[in-house]
Design brief:
alpha/beta, Aminopeptidase, 3-stranded antiparallel sheet, 7 helices, 10 strands, about 25% helix, about 15% strand, globular, binds zinc ion
């Protein structure tokens, strides 16, 4: 089901007039569900310069409970619906609402009806470094659990947690039976909201022998996201650390480096004027990852982890 564009094949068409500042473009190889894979993090110059120095192994080691551990502790802001009106709770404090005033854009990858609307989603859009499909159908597990269903479920869970922490949450789609929007629009929605941070949520359709997750930061090119490249790199590290520590999901063993990657072919990043990353939460084609991704309890843990990553990031950047 995945549509895996590769350089020189299918719909991918180079844009000849581009001005690129690095040679990391379109090196092909193993691909994420979002399209052609980019260059692994250690590539000189292209990595988020802020990411590597902070990429200490110990930073991600706290509280690893594994996929089958106890449900993640929910962050502050739990409902307390039994309080009588006469003793109404005091106004939320900053500690209880650590994300008050923050805007976060969530982009659940793909959409439920993309598969039956190829004329729409195959339309080429300009993502700065190339022309590529408006959107794709996404991956699925061998048992048929679809990536679009996964991403929408995680986004809903994450939105609930972030709102409980006081954030304003903007979603790029509001159901799982529509078409698109195009990747260009997915970026524009976060831009229009002036989001303080944004994420595109995916799960990969990698090689069945491969396992693990990766967070993808934008590469440094002449694109609208250039002013937020460094900030996006820091967001990537915070999300990576929280995800690894709270879900226990291993770093990808087939793409990226220590759970981080840099790509310049993703419109959702290239066109974002707000700090933004992608995450491939696991590999839907791998049996162990698929078992976790299919579990509602694990998806809740994913949401807890992503909320913690945003909170850590925004504490320092707000
Ligand atoms: Zn995807």
């Amino acid at each position: 089901m995945r549509r895996r564009a590769r350089p020189g094949l299918n719909r991918v068409t180079r844009v000849p007039t581009l001005v690129l500042t690095s040679a990391v473009l379109l090196v092909g190889g193993l691909a994420g569900c979002a399209g052609t894979s980019g260059t692994a993090l250690p590539a000189a110059g292209g990595s988020p310069s802020s990411a590597s120095p902070r990429d200490s192994p110990g930073a991600a080691a706290s509280g690893t409970g594994g996929a089958a551990g106890t449900p993640g502790a929910s962050p502050a802001g739990q409902h307390n619906g039994n309080a009588p009106l006469s003793t109404a709770a005091p106004a939320p404090t900053r500690a209880a609402q650590p994300l008050a005033g923050q805007v976060i854009a969530l982009d659940p990858g793909h959409n439920g009806a993309n598969w039956s609307h190829s004329a729409i989603i195959d339309r080429l859009v300009n993502v700065i470094t190339e022309l590529k499909a408006c959107d794709t159908t996404g991956a699925q597990t061998d048992a048929g659990y679809a990536e679009h269903t996964f991403t929408f479920d995680v986004a809903k869970r994450l939105a609930r947690l972030l709102r409980a922490e006081g954030a304003t949450v903007v979603l790029t789609r509001h159901n799982d039976h529509g078409v698109g929007p195009c990747v260009t629009q997915r970026a524009a929605i976060g831009n229009r909201a002036h989001a303080d941070a944004a994420i595109s949520i995916h799960a990969d359709g990698g090689p069945p022998t491969g396992t693990g997750f990766e967070v993808i930061a934008p590469g440094r090119i002449a694109a609208p996201d250039a002013p937020v490249i460094g900030t996006s790199g820091r967001l990537a590290v915070d999300i990576r650390n929280a995800y690894h520590g709270i879900t226990g999901e291993p770093y990808s063993d087939y793409v990226g480096s220590r759970g981080l990657d840099v790509r310049t072919d993703l419109g959702g990043l290239n066109l974002s004027t707000v700090p933004k990353v992608f995450i491939e939460c696991g590999n839907m084609r791998n049996a162990a990852d698929a078992a976790r991704l299919t579990s509602p309890r694990f998806r809740e843990r994913i949401a807890v982890a992503l909320a913690a990553g945003f909170t850590a990031f925004l504490k320092r950047h707000s």
